[in-house]
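Teaching assistant's notes for section 4

Start the section by putting this record on the projector. Ask students to predict, before seeing the second block, whether ABC transmembrane type-1 domain-containing protein will look compact or extended. Collect guesses on the board.
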Amino acid sequence: MSHIRTAQEINRLIQLKRRVKITLMTVIIFAVAILYFSPVLYMFLSAFKTEYQAVSPSLFFTPTLETFQKVLSDQNMYGFLKNSLFQVFVGTIICLLLGTPAAFALIFGKFKNEGTSGKIYLWFLTTILLPPVAVIIPLYTWFQAFNLIDKPIGLLILYVGFHVPLVVWMLHSFFSDIPVEILEAADIDGCSRLQQLLLIAVPLVRTGIIAAGLLVAVFIWNEFFLAFNLTGNQSATLPVYMARFREQQGMFVAQLSAASTVVILPAVIFGWISQKSLVKGLTAGGVKG
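Reveal the predicted structure now:
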C-alpha cells in the first residue's frame, strides 16, 4: 500500500514539475512577445493621442481621432498609396511569372553541361544576399543615364530584379518534391514543357507560389532604401512618404504614428487572412519524402 502511495506521489510530483515548466515557458514566451510588440503598441496608442499627449507618453489618456483626420485629409498621401499599390501588384505578378518557370527549368530542364543548373541556382542564392546599399551608386548612375529617376517603371525593374531570386529559391524546393515519373509520363503522352509546367507542376506547387507571392508583396510594400534614393514626389511609395512627412513637418509623433498605423493596416489584415497559406507554403517545401 505504501508502495502505491509512493508511486502516486512521484506521479503527482512529475505532473507538478511539468505544469511549472509549461507555465514558466508560457510566461517567458508572452514576456518576449510583449517586448517585441511594445513598439507597435506604442505607435498604435500614440496614433489616438494629440501631439501634446504624445510628447509625454502615458497609458492613460482620452482617445481622439483628430490625428487620423489630419493624416487622411492629406491628399498627397493617396498619390504615394497609389504608387505602392502599383509596385506591389505589378511587381509581384511579374516576379511570379518569371520566377516560376525559372525554378521549374532549374529542376527539370536539360542543360548542355552537367552542373549548370546548380551553378545558376547558386547565382540566384548569392543575388538574394546582395544588399541594395552595395549597388546604389551604379544604380543611381544608370538611372540618370536612362532617365529613370522618379519613374515608376525604373523602381519596378529593380523590385523585379531583387525579388525574382527569392521566388526561385522558394519554389526550387517545391518543384524538387515533384516525382520525375509524373513529368516523364506526361512527356510520353505528348505534353510539351509548357503544358507540363502549367497543367501539372503549377497545380502541385500552388501553395508554394502563394507563399512566395505573399513574401514578395510584403517586401515590396515595406521597401524604403531604393525608393528613397531613386524616386521623387511622382513615383515615391508610402515608406518614403512617412520619412518625408517627418522631415518636412518636424517631429510630430502622433501624426507619424497615425500614418504608420494606416500604412501597416492593409499588410496586417492581408497577412492575417492568408496566414494559413503562408505558413503551409513556408513549411511544405522543406519536407522531403
